[in-house]
Amino acid sequence: MQNLIFTNDVEAAIERLTHSAAPNVTVYVADVNTARFAFGQERLVVIPDGDSGKSLETVNRVWEAFEDFGVTRHSLIINLGGGMVTDLGGFAAATFKRGVRFVNVPTTLLGAVDAAVGGKTGFNFGGLKNEIGAFALASDVIISTRYFDTLPEREMKSGFAEVVKHAMLSDRSEFLRLLDHDFSAPINHNDLLERLRHSVQVKVDIVARDPNEQGERKALNLGHTVGHAFESLAMQRGKPVPHGYAVAWGLVTEAVLSHMRLGFPGEDVHRLGHFVRDNYRDFPFTCDDYDDLLDLMRHDKKSRAGEITCTLLTTIGDYRIDQTITPDDITAALDILRDHLGL
Amino acid sequence: MQNLIFTNDVEAAIERLTHSAAPNVTVYVADVNTARFAFGQERLVVIPDGDSGKSLETVNRVWEAFEDFGVTRHSLIINLGGGMVTDLGGFAAATFKRGVRFVNVPTTLLGAVDAAVGGKTGFNFGGLKNEIGAFALASDVIISTRYFDTLPEREMKSGFAEVVKHAMLSDRSEFLRLLDHDFSAPINHNDLLERLRHSVQVKVDIVARDPNEQGERKALNLGHTVGHAFESLAMQRGKPVPHGYAVAWGLVTEAVLSHMRLGFPGEDVHRLGHFVRDNYRDFPFTCDDYDDLLDLMRHDKKSRAGEITCTLLTTIGDYRIDQTITPDDITAALDILRDHLGL
After folding, report:
1. Chain B residue with minimal CA distance to A130?
2. Is A94 in the B-facing interface, judged by CB distances under 8 Å?
3. How far is CA B199 from CA A150, B169, B203, B223, in A?
């Protein structure tokens, strides 16, 4: 199990962890943007930011740095950064001497609610995202909002889509509370930390029941079967969209599919649609793109034999995994998504 | 849990496995010597033999081959070879798309009783053996003696030392039976397969109780604290010795230590000493090497803070892990080892 620590006094939390673990060596892994948060640390590995640096070459350099710093099985690795740092640093630690203890300190909202917890680690290979990796849990995850004041609004919105997803999988009152969120207001740190506590727990509970993605963990794929297709097509066209924007559009589409197939309440589809129109409106696709999107869904890593499956809801908090959907249903749902967005 | 299959009809066993698993693609990994056993297979990755090829470059090439062959999470990897093939091929499979099912088919005695079972996978890095790796179990291990007729006698003896170790951890009648083994006689396949069945089960039972080497698994380190020092020193001097020879000498030394510290019966020390003198006599060290050997034991991957610890026995079948031993005790035991060897 992962030890989750919700605090904005990150230094004190790290101090307590290193005091109790008594590692022979502590090494920080950060990227060029987050290295400043590790200012003054004796042993620091700085890796590139951006997806193109999430490579075997970078992993190799991290392993070499671990050798140079004398890392052993009694050492501690602290990954300080967004999803790329916790994914790649986690993989490097999990495979060094067959496993060194590592702690994740996510510095982005998306990292805090998604990449830093749940044990998926890895890097890109052969042009494919996260193609090489391992399931390996950080021993501890320190979740704070203190790094978010300087995050661009688009990054906050990107992470927030995953927070909404977790509420849709678990709790309608939390879902409704989130839809009132105002991204133009200054961050209320105490309130946001409470929202994170709720959100992360949803993921942790599901992962605990299915760590290696044999079944129930697919619940976390809500919004992602369609969302990944948006993300991949935008990437192929050289105009990438933030992950969470693709998820937000995917959540509306799959809520529509849930309504069509499982009677998910129409009023909640509408509430979600309004929220996404207000905050994630710059949808770059038209009906001319439907064939390309369907093709991408058929070739998703999690699909088998060309069938399109996704996670749907009967109501907020009640999910059904492995729902097979037809191209006609998806086409209809994409039309309704575009209506919701006012396009 | 690993499914263990003891049979000399390897093709039929593989046929049954692929029939039930129904993989979309089956890929064989073999080295330049064992590739002939995969003759006629459509998808085969051939890697170098020898420890210098157990590298990140080779892992990279295996991952690239998996991409080329269209390996997915619904594929099957078959590692056909000695410890290097099962270690490296296992790591490549365990990390490709965060884990593809793999089957080990060991072709050496040492591989069958040691590397192929228990889930340790990995490769050499920064000049250190198995420095990068993961704990990942082969779903199935097909254990046969059919590849052993052409194994050099030194390789048979090397593997046999691990068979003796497993008997020392579990069963005195098996231990005594093994000491009667005659390496100059032709292989009795039925009998040897029975010995393997007994031996592998000892390892599997211990690993099942402690898969990630937190405690009890250290029992399998019997003979290895001292044995690794022999192996490393011989390697440093450019005159490597087979792993199992170093283990055989380590078993005698640690049996002597067990007698000194825990009252392990002297008659069993003598029986073991005779067997090792008869079969593993070419011991390349003198009393001038004791300081170097002690230094190596202090820096073993499993030691902490310079203390030397090992697994000792009170009697055959009853082990005690984490026994701290002094340099003086080891020096005395090494003298007695050399007496047993008639040196």
Report:
1. B97
2. yes
3. 60, 10, 7, 16
CA distance A265 to A259: 6
Tell me the per-residue pLDDT of B264-295, one tens digit each, with 9 for 90 and over.
999 999 999 999 999 999 999 999 999 999 99
Residues in A touching B59 (Cβ below 8 Å): none
From the candidates A198, A213, A298, A338, give the one annotated as an active-site residue.
A213
Domains of chain A, each with CATH number or no CATH: 3-143 (3.40.50.1970), 154-340 (1.20.1090.10)
Reference A164, options A82, A273, A86, A283; nearest CA is: A273
pLDDT: which is higher, B184 or B304: B184
Q: Does B301 touch chain A (CB under 8 A)?
A: yes
Query: Cβ B98–A133 below 8 Å, yes or no?
Result: yes
Distance (Å) from the alpha carbon of B90 to chain A's nearest alpha carbon: 13
Most A-contacting residue of B59, B95, B300 (CB-CB within 10 A), to test interface? B95
| Catalytic residue from among A98, A239, A301, A304 | A98
**Non-local CB neighbours of A299 within 8 Å, separated by 6+ positions:** none
Query: What angle (nearest 5°) sits at the alpha carbon of residue B46, between those of residues B43 and B50?
Result: 160
Per-residue model confidence as pLDDT tens digits over A253-290:
999 999 999 999 999 999 999 999 999 999 999 999 99
Share of chain A above pLDDT 90, in %: 91
Q: What residues of chain A lie within 8 A of the CB of B119, using their CB?
A: none
| Beta carbons within 10 angstroms of residue A186's beta carbon | 7
User: Would you state the pLDDT for residue B128?
Assistant: 85
Q: What length does chain B have?
A: 343
pLDDT of residue A304 exceeding 70, the answer is: no
Does residue B97 belong to the interface with chain A, where contact is any CB pair within 8 Å? yes
Phi, psi of B321 (to 5 degrees): -85, 170
- Helix (H, G, I), strand (E, B), or coil: what is residue A328? helix
**pTM, entire model:** 0.91
Predicted ipTM of the assembly: 0.89
Check pLDDT > 80 for residue B304: no
